[in-house]
Amino acid sequence: MFNVERWQEIFETLRKNKLRTFLTGLSVASGIFILVILLGFSSGIENGVTSEFQQDATNEIFVRTRITTKGYKGLNPGRRIQLKDEDFAMVSNNYDEFLEYRTANYSIWGGQVAYKNETGNYRVQGVLPDNQFIENADIGKGRFINFSDVNENRKVAVIGNKVSQDLFKTENPIDKYISIFGIPYKVVGVYFDPGGEREESQVFLPLTSARVAFNGGDNIRNMSFTVKMSENFDEAVAVSKNITEAIEKDLKEKLIIAPDDTAAIRVNNTLEEAQKIYSLIDTIKAVFWFIGIGTIIAGVVGVGNIMIIIVKERTKEIGIRKALGAIPASIIGMILQEAIFVTMFSGLFGLIAGLAVLEIAGPYVDSPFIKFPQVDFGTAITTVFILVIAGAFAGFLPAYRAAKIKPIVALRDE
Amino acid sequence: MIQIKDLHKSYHMGSNSLHVLKGINFNVKEGELVSIMGSSGSGKSTLLNILGMLDEADRGSYVLDGVPIKNLNEKIAAKYRNEFLGFIFQSFNLINYKTAVDNVALPMFYKGINRKERVEKARHYLEKVGLADWSHHLPSELSGGQKQRVAIARALASEPKVLLADEPTGALDTKTSYEVMDLIQGINDEGKTILVVTHEEDIAHMTKRIVNLKDGVIIDDSPVEQVRAKQHV
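YS: structure for the whole thing
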């Protein structure tokens, strides 16, 4: 295998048979190229969808209210349902053992936020400390809202990274004062969110301070909970689903809403959605692998096919070589070594081309559902080797048969 | 150099059995230039194939340079072919994607000689057959006579004990045939043992001994007055 003379002979043969070499190489390279692109996009979709989900906790139960659409117990439709602190307390108490984090929010949309001469409109929310985990907010600097802030109505704010960049540029915002509708708040933290810019364009205040400043009384705009995750994902989904239904039932009873009024109160649970999406991702992955494996099989068959043609075409040459003293093993070796070299080289070429395309085109893919399309290099290398081995295997039979050809048969004049 | 005793060979085609060689006895001494003649179907090519270890006899003994040739597996046959024999074919059988010099160097590759030495020797033999200037041409760029000379150079390159030529002039015109025979005679003059299969009288008379085959047996084996090909060129 590492005989220099042999390699010289093989390179010479390949050089002298450019078209054949090129065609074999092309079929292998394109197979691997397609596989790499497919796997890249499969992982891109997985990354994209996963990060869409990571903007908030995946095990969240979200409660918000609107206007009733149905009359119930003598009450007219069109009534605005307002959540209060007592509703939050009720849900928290009733399902305490199943809940992990809980927060009640009071939000002000399009809050004008200013620092010195910079201003911007952001979503401003009064929240409880647990909101950090429900929002999946990573604290970059400082800290999140804590219970002392809430209890003492402190005028503090935690701002998203986007807000920090917009208003403070490169300045460190910690302990600086921002004004929201003219009221100054001290920045105590900056957070990052895997959900990206949109999620990082928010300002969090303590729930109590926000309500005091904006006349909220004991009103709540919405509330969020996360359910405790059990080891078994399906079990967690079932628990989450049951609690969601139970919360909806409790609140409808308490707030006097018709049981079949779906608009007045919405209790969503993301875990069930997550499960659907994860199984969708699994399906997409399976489909891509199926196509990928199909491509590889086609590639192997292609290589085998070309090998048969090569051997057929070279029957006479093989006869000549045998008459000149080539032993059968050297004939098999020659054909296989040549085939392995071509498949390996072009396989790697296809691999590198595919990786390059993903690397270059990847960042330009502007879709929230496809992110960082990339391929695990180990997987890709493995597929190349599988292709090479399978190709060699497919080539062995014709090579073996070629070595068995009697020189007199091969040299017989047609 | 070659001792053959009671050589038999038959081919089986379905239920028919064709007895091609029916007890051949013949010896060739070192330095001889022998032609094997016979009409088609006389068994001359079969005999040559057996001599060339491209085919094996059913019965009888074949000793080449003191080595009994029998029960050969592919590997040993390949080794013996490489070591003992040089082939010259009617249709030249050059590898068409290799240049003249690479074609000539090929048997030496299977001998395990390194590339530098191979090329050097190949050039030497090409020079010997008068094609030094054509060493980097492909077979397709050479005339029939030139191709056969390249083939002869290749046969010589492995420095064999015996040269086996199967209708070496069969695909050539008369003038070129004589040129090739002149070359073969020259090589024989240097002491190389050569066997030529031919059905052309004039070519046969350029050898030193004619063996006549008919229906699988030797009907005549006699030395002849050698006609030098040079006179006709």
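YS: worth flagging: Residues 29-56+71-232 of chain B form a domain with the Rossmann fold fold (CATH 3.40.50.300).
IM: good catch. Also Residues 35 and 204 of chain B are 6 Å apart (CA to CA).
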